[in-house]
What we know:
Layout: H1 4-17, E1 21-23, E2 30-31, E3 37-38, E4 40-42, H2 51-68, E5 76-80, H3 85-95, E6 99-102, E7 115-116, E8 124-132, H4 136-147, E9 151-160, E10 171-175, H5 176-185, H6 191-202, H7 204-210
Parallel strand pairs: 5-6, 5-8, 8-9, 9-10
Antiparallel strand pairs: 1-4, 2-3, 6-7
Helix pairs in contact: 1-2, 1-5, 2-3, 5-6, 6-7
Amino acid sequence: MRTQENRAAETARIISDSRSLYTRTDGEPFFFSSGWASPVFIDCKKLISSPDDRALLVEMAVEAITAHIDPDSLDAIAGCELTGVPFAALIADRLHKPLVLVCKQRKGFGRLAQFEGSFEAGAKVLLIDDLATDGASESVFMSALRKAEAEILGTFVLVDFNVFTGEHRMLSLATLEDIMDRAESDGYFGRREADEVRKFIRDAPTWSRKHGGISAI
């Protein structure tokens, strides 16, 4: 089994090679739905279209998850609408676990109105998404699971920005800093771009405030 350091390095390589990392260090930055401003974004949606990369990411995800959570303790895998669904489905298949999809909004009535699929009250669930920036989206999906009387054993993402204060801690394959380390070594950025993203990683709230975003939630 790979170490966490090995998994982070492989994930960073995949993201760098697939050109899934984008920056806006001049002009208007990226704005996340919660109001944070960022000079960088990772488009994990691209990764499902490469069979080799996808297979390796799922293999490493299963390693990371089972290193922290006993699969026998899990009753279901929950995928976040929309981008978390492909990887949640693949991981659920590898672990041979039921799959449910957590929707952004309720559709219909009853305890499971915000879900596709079903699970019993008290079910032990692992929530899966592709990318966590500020953790706001994952918090919404976690709230839906709790309202549906699920017990959340953890949250897993491929990449966790891991730069915002108060962000819910998650299992992940890599952090934004891991991705940046690889991207810089690959010559993905110019020096000025890289320096600006490093400023964001060191102090995201201050960077966000200076560029028109919020500085706290």
